[in-house]
Amino acid sequence: MGGAVSAGEDNDELIDNLKEAQYIRTELVEQAFRAIDRADYYLEEFKDNAYKDLAWKHGNIHLSAPCIYSEVMEALDLQPGLSFLNLGSGTGYLSSMVGLILGPFGVNHGVELHSDVIEYAKQKLDFFIKTSDSFDKFEFCEPSFVTGNCLEISPDCTQYDRVYCGAGVQKEHEDYMKNLLKVGGILVMPLEEKPNHADSGKSRLVHLPPVAVRSLQDLARIAIRGTIKKIIHQETMSKNGNGLKNPPKFKRRRVRRRRMETIVFLDKEVFASRISNPSDDNNNSEDLEDEGQDEEEMKSSELKPDPPVNFLREKVLSLPLPDPLKYYLLYYREK
User: Fold this and answer.
1) DSSP conformation letters of 90-101
2) How many whole angstroms separate alpha carbon 149 and alpha carbon 111?
3) Cα–Cα distance list, 252 to 91, 276, 283, 290, 298 (Å)
4) Stretch (H or E) spanning 302
5) Which of 1, 20, 69, 292 sits 20 to 30 Å CA-CA off 56?
6) What is the DSSP string of 182-224?
7) In the annotation, is 64 catalytic?
8) What does 47-65 look like in DSSP terms, one character per residue?
9) Which letter, b or e, does each residue of 132-154 get, where b requires 16 or more Cβ atoms within 10 Å of its Cβ?
10) What is residue 100's predicted lDDT score, i.e. its pLDDT?
11) Which residues, at least 6 apart from 128, have a Cβ–Cβ distance to it below 8 Å?
12) Do 168 and 131 touch, CB atoms closer than 8 A?
């Protein structure tokens, strides 16, 4: 499935196309999609197709089309602090985007049938946490994955605010899925009318991770990072004048004044002469200046922007703290 929007040259262009087609409609969802590069969840030899609006499958690894994920994210109506269960969590791409919205006090669990896909998802999650600058722009609810059949979840498991199942769900399992929800929760899944009598094989109850209580040390890290982000925001506002960025430079429209041509009638003869406008000489010099400014603006627009700066990391590293504590605040990230 997919192909609803044009392919992008990069992740941002793909998101622009999804926005234009109204698949992405809210700011929170847009921020999450921009923060995680879809190509990072592809095998290296298939990355050329990462920004196409198409599903991808290789062995047990599967990614739905971007238009599907964006519809799901919008339908889930995610908010900070909610609990989320992803049935058929796959590569962890969707779970990681959800984690950016849930924040540090949410719950983010996934169930995946194939153990090799679980290992793949953990590798991708570790790569995101250690290397992505986007990680420091959010307080992340790290997903936890377990192996098992999502139709064999232990009946004593906790219920969730939001549940998503990517695989087609038979009508006979509809109530089972609804029982995973808290009252007032949201369940997103493709419901199929056609019954499926395939034998699922040996049954084994799936026990979901317990809802962990954060340690005091972890809570302190969240609070310190939050305070530093507020300081950075206040400093940025004061530099930019109450948060207003410098207005963008637009090309000044060049107005060329016409020379005045006057025709004088003398009796039966017509005498044509040019009566000069006093501002003509000034206009010539202004035109030259404007052309020079246009050239400078074109040159400056062609310059590549500076790479983004991770202000949180710089601020933490400048603090008068022991290095182990600094790196703890940075989640031991590599950059």
Assistant:
1) TTSHHHHHHHHH
2) 7
3) 50, 26, 15, 8, 12
4) helix 280-302
5) 20
6) EEEEEEE--EE-S-------S--PBPPPP-PPPPHHHHHHHHH
7) yes
8) GGGTTSSB-EEETTEEE--
9) bebbbbbbbbebbbeebbbbebe
10) 97
11) 36, 40, 96, 134, 135
12) no
Outline where DSSP puts E strands in the chain: 56-58, 61-63, 83-87, 107-112, 144-147, 160-165, 169-170, 181-188, 191-192, 261-266, 269-274
- Average pLDDT on 98-103 reads 97
β pairing state of 269-274 and 261-266? antiparallel
Residues sharing a CB contact under 8 Å with residue 262, sequence separation 6 or more, in sequence order: 273, 274, 275
d(CA 162, CA 18): 23
Rounded to whole angstroms, how far apart are CA atoms 95 and 109? 8
pTM of the model: 0.76
The pLDDT tens digits for 146-155 are: 999 999 999 8
Q: Which residues contact 157 (CB under 8 A, 6 or more apart)?
A: 180, 207, 208
Rounded Cα distance between 140 and 333, Å, is 14
Distance, in Å, from the CA atom of 105 to the CA atom of 117, rounded to the nearest integer, reads 26
Supply the Cα-derived Rg of the chain in whole angstroms. Answer: 29
Q: Is the dihedral of CA 64, 69, 75, 80 positive or negative?
A: positive
**Catalytic option among 64, 95, 96, 134:** 64
- Is residue 266 predicted with pLDDT exceeding 90? no
Residue 258 three-state SS:
coil
Both structure tokens of 213: 């209580």
Q: What is the dihedral of CA 23, 25, 27, 28, to 10 degrees?
A: -60
Tokens 């200046």 belong to residue: 289
Kindly state the tokens that stand for 22: 């109204």
**DSSP state letter for 153:** B
Dihedral of CA 130/135/136/141: which sign? negative
One-letter identity of residue 248: P
pLDDT at residue 273, as a whole number? 46
